[in-house]
Amino acid sequence: MKKKRIWIVVIVLIVIGGGATYFYLNSSNGDTDQEEPFVLANRGTVVEKALAVGKIEPENEIEVKSKISGVVSRIFAEPGTYVKKGDPLIEVSPDPTPLELVEAKRNLERTEIEMKNLESELNRLKTLLAANLISQQEYDRTEQLYNDVVIRAQINTERLELLEYGRVTVGDTVIESIIRSPIDGFILEKMVDIGEPVVPLTSYQAGTALMSLAGMDRLLFKGTVDEIDVGKLEEGMPAEIKIGALQGSVIRGVVSRISLKAVQENNATVFPIEIIITDTAGSVLRAGYSANADIIIERMEDTITLPERVITMRDGRAFIEVEDSSIEGKSEKEIELGLSDAITVAVIEGLEEGDKVYERPLKSLSIR
What CATH number does residue 134 fall under? Predict the structure, then answer.
């Protein structure tokens, strides 16, 4: 029984081996009968472009700040609202400390007492001057002191009114705690809520940002381009901008600025650029949209094109394999290349439309 089983296994192995050999030989013969893969030279467009990554931003964005301290008591407009220059945005109610309020009142009281004393002295000197008992110079000096005190009393009165009510009129000018829009535009962001404290803008501190505004009629693409491509770019080059949130829409623009200084971004050296948007293609753009821009460096239209994979480069020269009727086979031919987009290349000389170009043979890797 044991020998019988061995013989059965041997026979099965022989049958499997013969079948595999037959299948391999038939498949090999079939391959030789198949035509080698090829491509046809066609007319098309080749575009060399540089990729910039960035986002959509308004050309001028303004932060609105207050010149007086206090707390936010009222908000007149919300983000997304269009406002005109002079429209109210936020009201800041004064919130003086008890010490500031007491000091302002005491300063006003002291100035008023001083003003009354000088007024009495001035009346006395006026009588003496009429009797020629004092000189005109002495009288003028006292009158000047009185005028100075009157001005200081007015300033202290206005300061107290501003601390208490947040509004004061100086001549024809109304000084109030209502912050108004400095430009025509849209409110992009609101940084404060009702009840929050406000630090004023002075020469020594930046102050609290209340809102940001921008005119959305002039938008820019602001992004960066790799250092490899920046040397090919020039201001005025056209660009096609694609926005992820607006699938299928292509926004057009023109390069307006190329930075002279590089920056480091994700361990890569890039150069900031700006592109003025000239055609929105009917799309509504919003500040902050992420976008990619293809900057058109050069374009060749209606030219013979080939896939780069069928071209062999040797010593700076380009070769392809074409059908050769004289030898009823294929032969190598030199061609002159033009513009390339790294996938498709333009052929300037050596090829006609419709010519058959064979694919380069695949190279197998030997594993030891």
Answer: 1.10.287
